[in-house]
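> @MW can you paste both from yesterday?
MW: sure, first one:
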Amino acid sequence: MSKLTKNQKLALAKIEAGKAYTLAEAAEKVKDITFTKFDSSVDIDVRLGVDPRKANQMVRGVVTLPHGTGKVVRVLVLCNPDQEQAAKAAGADYVGLDEYIQKIKEGWTDVDVIITQPQVMGKIGALGRILGPRGLMPNPKSGTVTPNVAQAVEEVKKGKIDFKVDKNGIVHSSIGKVSFSPEQVKDNAKEFINTLIKLKPATAKGTYIKSIYLSSTMSPGVKVDVKSIDA
């Protein structure tokens, strides 16, 4: 086992062992235990009482964070020529169709989100083996396959993210930056958690939200008291 660094020891010393903090306290604590020289991401991990192996217990959705993610999101729009100008005006970083499909086939995936129209999905389907493993494949459920590409671009740029429970029943996402105020981190976390609650599968039995942790890049996790979410 590797030795703890000085900063890791300092961070752990600031967390009370076994304590579950209120969401507001956890938001402050994450800022307090982060010692990176760059603006770290703030992450949330929520363990759900679901069995992702069952299709009727798969939790997947989208949420627009009130304060955005703090990240610069690079958006590619694959669309017909009549939508190109609107996509560019909405803030898309790259707009086109055949030329970008060819670039992707050649290995280019230097974007964070790909948005497209339903009528061109036939051309994009062949890119699944490249885009799928990278989480870039457009999907109607995440709002990235839509007739209104301009609106989708605006939403993504404002902080709309999509998420999906993993095979262990955990939903993980970045919800901001350490440079955010504790109140902003709390607001984003609360919106994310409330969205998860709304998506509770009817077939899920027992405790749905089992645990919540906030952390930043390279920091320990701070346990959140699930009962404090409504506070």
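MW: second:
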Amino acid sequence: MAKTEQQKLDEKREKEYAKKHKRMHRLTWQDVIFNICNYGFFSIFTLSCIFPFYYIFINTISKRSYVIAGKITLLPKGINFQNYIDMLKVNAIFDAFAVSLIRTIVGTALMVAATGLIGYLVTKQEMWHRKIWYRFIVITMYFNAGIIPWYMNMSMLGLTGTFAAYIIPGIVAPYNIILVKTYIESIPAELEESAFMDGAGFMVVFTKIIWPLSKPILATIAIFGAVGHWNSFTDSLILMQDNPKLFTLQHLLYNYLNSGSSLGSFMDTGGSGMIGMVEELANGKVIKYTVSMVAIIPILLVYPFMQRYFEKGIMLGAVKG
């Protein structure tokens, strides 16, 4: 079928547009130099961030004699996973890992639930003294009494030496509430109004409409909360001195890195066969690397799965104050 004049004219315009578009996006020599410098800088920056983790990891899977001699640089030597196997025999580390894991899961879940609900409530004009409560929450970001009054307060509340000390203080996170509030305000009000007209209450609107639409920002604050709980050791260091069974993994790592003691000091006392194991694991350098990787790997594995929500959530939640 022969092409009409209009079709020929449209094809001609498309070709002209393509040529013009190509000329507009043709790189100049300045663009090429900029791209080379840009990619080169960020490649070096990325490698400088990754290399410390890589260096620790290759030391944990290398033969101990090579690590002790300082012969591990870029590639592992005498690859084995004995260090990680020996970690499983250390009751203190296993218990600390369990405490950190449970704390991270429970603390993050409660923080996300409370932050989502509070962030929604402070957007409602119907909330009793909404502005006062919101300002009261925000002001805690800038003013605090300090460590000693904080410890005295935790002690008077009976939270010292208890697992609740890890969870309760972190349920309300002011900065995260600001992010959630800002994000919820960007959701079209018509969605809520239509639900109210159908007879839905605030909690129904929150659970059926606001919560599902707020997944990006909730995932973002979940990352903040999980990383914060997993890496925290100050509260464990101060509040759990009388209850070593509730030491977090980071606290145990902190103690070990500062004490320089051998892994054998963490092991249960056994028979004569245990002596050889303690002597074999006496090198603190290898053990520090291994414990560090045990503390780092879990959070590194979780973060990539949440990354797709992170950028969208943090950008949309930070548009307005």
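> thanks! The chain has 16 helices and no strands.
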